[in-house]
Design a protein that fits this description.
This protein is mainly alpha-helical and 236 residues long. It is built from twelve helices and three strands, in the order H-H-E-E-E-H-H-H-H-H-H-H-H-H-H. The protein has helices at residues 2-6, 10-19, 44-47, 57-68, 81-84, 87-90, 93-106, 124-155, 159-176, 196-199, 205-220, 222-231, and strands at residues 24-26, 34-36, 39-41. It has a three-stranded mixed sheet, covered by helices on one side. The longest helix is centred in the middle third of the chain and has 32 residues, at 124-155. The two termini are 25 Å apart.
Length: 236
């Protein structure tokens, strides 16, 4: 693994040299690879890759999670908000990615909140407001149909190239509230129709998964990274 780390891009290599000593590794007691605080549970088999991950992809995904875990509190210290947030939460990773995804789908088409508060149905202003609402709905629906076409194209790519992006689209759409692409949009993901996994901002699942997936893609999967940059151009 040391040889692989030495081949990383300079900034990523620096991150591993700085943080790797703080990570403990052990075989999973049950199930697949996972992270508990600064402990990475991963098997030798996981290092070989899977249908959705290239060789060492799972290793870089899970260590990315471990690096993102907040530092242990000093004994006797009362935790502040800064103490309990993941590093990725502190930089607003999920919100910036959400804006990026929204723009990729709808381009410069505004949201419904741009129409202002709906007037009373029997008021003179309601007719104009409703006409604007219907016109905006039509524009947004056409944009969604166009993005559906992009999704169909992405689904034809190899599972290993689209797995990271699938999770990111799922997370962003769940938080956006559209729920059109919120459950395994490219054939894999975390939600499985349980949108709560992504919605709880305090837990930081969205930020942590984004960071882990990009970390893995940068280290082991150039095709995945290319797709992420295409759909979330401001994110990476």
């Amino acid at each position: 693994m040391a040889k692989k780390i030495n081949t990383l891009m300079p900034d990523q290599k620096k991150m591993y040299i700085k943080n790797f000593k703080n990570i403990t590794f052990r075989e999973p007691s049950s199930g697949g690879a996972n992270v508990v605080d600064k402990v990475v549970e991963i098997s030798k088999k996981d290092l070989l890759g899977t249908k959705t991950e290239n060789k060492f992809g799972i290793f870089f995904h899970e260590t990315g999670h471990a690096f993102d875990v907040p530092k242990p509190l000093e004994k006797g210290k009362m935790p502040s908000l800064e103490d309990v947030l993941n590093t990725s939460q502190k930089v607003g990773l999920a919100e910036s990615t959400l804006k990026d995804f929204n723009h990729d789908v709808y381009k410069d088409i505004p949201g419904f909140d741009s129409l202002g508060k709906r007037p009373r149905r029997n008021s003179k202003a309601y007719k104009t407001w409703n006409e604007n609402y219907m016109a905006l709905m039509d524009k947004r629906s056409k944009a969604e149909d166009a993005f559906d076409g992009e999704i169909d194209k992405l689904k034809k790519l190899s599972p290993s190239s689209r797995s990271n992006l699938s999770d990111m689209i799922e997370s962003a759409d769940s938080r956006l509230g559209d729920y059109k692409w919120s459950s395994n949009p490219l054939g894999m993901g975390h939600a499985q129709k349980n949108y709560g996994y992504w919605k709880d901002k305090d837990i930081g699942n969205a930020e942590s998964e984004f960071f882990a997936e990009v970390n893995s893609a940068v280290a082991t999967n150039p095709e995945s990274l290319k797709l992420i940059k295409k759909i979330l151009s401001e994110f990476v």
